[in-house]
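Why run this: before we spend reagent on co-expression, it is cheaper to look at a predicted model of the complex and decide which construct boundaries make sense. The entries below are exactly what would go into the expression plan.
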Amino acid sequence: MKLDVDVLRYLSKDDFRVLTAVELGMRNHEIVPTELIDRIARLKHGGTYKVLKNLLKYKLLHHDSSKYDGFRLTYLGYDFLAIKTMVNKGVFVGVGRQIGVGKESDIFEVVREDGTVLAMKLHRLGRVSFRAVKSKRDYLRHRSSYNWLYLSRLAALKEFAFMKALETHGFPVPNAIEHNRHCVVMSLVQGYPLVQVKQLPNPETVFETIIGLVVRLAEHGLIHCDFNEFNIMIDDDEKITMIDFPQMVSVSHRNAQMYFDRDVECIFKFFRKRFNLSFQESIDDIDGSDDGRDEAGKPCFSAIERSAGFLDRELAASGFTRKDEEDIQRFIEGGAESDTNSDSEGVDIVEDLNEAETVDGDSSHLLEQNEGYDSKGKEESCEARESSGSEKE
Ligand code: ADP
Ligand code: MG
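The model came back. Tokens follow.
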């Protein structure tokens, strides 16, 4: 999907007010009745209807009149709300080219006022089919729009919290700068995803560093769960940075052992295939012992688990709650199904617009145009890893 940030220039305060009204309405309506949008936005002289037309023209909203007349946000609409908020907060002043298309995200360069370039990740969890956990409707009755909006926001919240915590504990991760809605802004990692690297001067050392990371993560109580050549960045000095954290779990997760072994296996497999490494020697060479490793030289989860730290519990106290974790995990691990319509009568949200994080203000200073993007292709790695197929919206 192209993110034509240029459109931001043409959006007025009223446009953003109505866009925010739709977002608020989506708290309990998948399609927000037009009349409700008007009540929330409270623009004079039927202004809302004119604005809705404009937003539709720019594809920030989707119109649906199958059951009643209403609108929902598109990804683009949600993107613009987050981007506008970031700009208003002074996090960045412009959006540049797209640098990555992940399974469930789009990554762009953004530029700060001083010219520093950062990375912005827009989460697209649930992009596949607007999936939602219908069977958990009871559990979610206070948040009936259990949809991509909610899931993408959770993913961003989780990613931000984990990135911060990992950085604090000395892990090589991007510097987490800000998050809003489904958007995370972080430092731009120099280098390339490992998958693009055909040759390495010191593959054994790089391999050891990477396996050492998986082990150290587990010692801190965490498993990455998507630890592969797509989520490991490497620069010209062979410095490693790991990225992509929304699916991480605690070592106390019931499938922890399986996730850990899978992460390890992916790395072994990749280095075996790409760099022809034979592992037994390299591990013994580096460690001087094979403690905590099995016959094949792979780290044993049970040995690590016993001494695992408390980072997982620390994270639970970081604003990313246990319930958030349960919701997102339920989605990631499957069991999600199509959410047809989650409209519910209910809470009067008309007052909320004033409390909500609205995004007023001038946007004409959004500088660069999107220069198109280079797609790095769909993320497919260890065969064992990728389970569900995904089609983009
Ligand atoms: P997904 O969850 O969709 O897989 P990722 O976080 O793995 O998203 O990002 C997708 C791609 O975007 C990465 O493989 C990488 O090429 C690029 N990317 C992500 N974050 C950064 C960053 N901070 N700096 C540079 N490139 C990044
Ligand atoms: Mg990834």
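The mean pLDDT is 79. Residues 7-73 form a domain with the Arc Repressor Mutant, subunit A fold (CATH 1.10.10.10). Bring this page to Monday's planning discussion.
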